[in-house]
Sequence to fold (298 residues):
Amino acid sequence: MTPDPRPAWADPNGLPTAYCIASAMQVATAIDAEGSLVKDARETYWHMATGALHPPADLERGEVLLEDLGLVERRDQRLFLTPVLRVLLTGSLEAATALMIVRACEGMADNDSDLMDAEGLAEALEACVPDVAQRDECVRVALGKFDDARRRLVGEIGEEVVHEAARRELAELGHATHASAVRRVSLESDGYGYDIVAPTVHGVPRLLEVKASTSVGDSVVVYLSRHEATVGLREPAWSLLVCEVTDVELRAGNVLGWLPARSIAAQFPIDQEGGRWESVQLTLAVDSLHPGMPSPYG
Fold:
């Protein structure tokens, strides 16, 4: 039998149950302000279990939930309340429930779990968060986290596709050494202003800023930061390369084409008195892209 990958505190949707959240908050009251030894905290659980409201095993699951959600820290066999959990202990169980649900959703998104739609999330929250307004706010925040995670994932896949395409292109031209020198510098830092450095057979390397999307028709919408735009206008070897991600699960896609910075500069905003732009949304016609990637011959 395949083991269940979900944590012991999770329901079928991967979210903590209302009962487990209540157990976790009970556990939190057993941890001293200066921290508690794990063995002492667990001994306290047995005393708390009087009346069988939360048996010790359930309290231990609550402890795991607090750790998994980053609300309790374990150092040198001691448990410490985080500042966030201290605040939760002074408020309502509903507020604690809302925050734990959102944090669990963040964890699911970071782990590339299947993303729940608004209706499914609302149904999963219904038993845990009775207040409708609070439940709606949970849904809004959690889906925002999912959207951010999905954008990051699509961007990563796009970079992988371009990285592999650049390596394959150079290898097929008989330049194996150049192919092995293709670098995905975004893994080192996000401060370069481009994602991939791809050597050319002759001349300076290509600096490729990759933008990826799963929604491509006659046009594609991408977002460019001010820093990326500045580097693009400064570096002649810089190009904006657009990739379509065709299958997120298989991490598959294809390169649609590219544009030099000068051809998109007219879409850059103009700074106003008292403020300056930091990011711009660009709508690019697919047929305006130069096919493939910038020439490997420089």
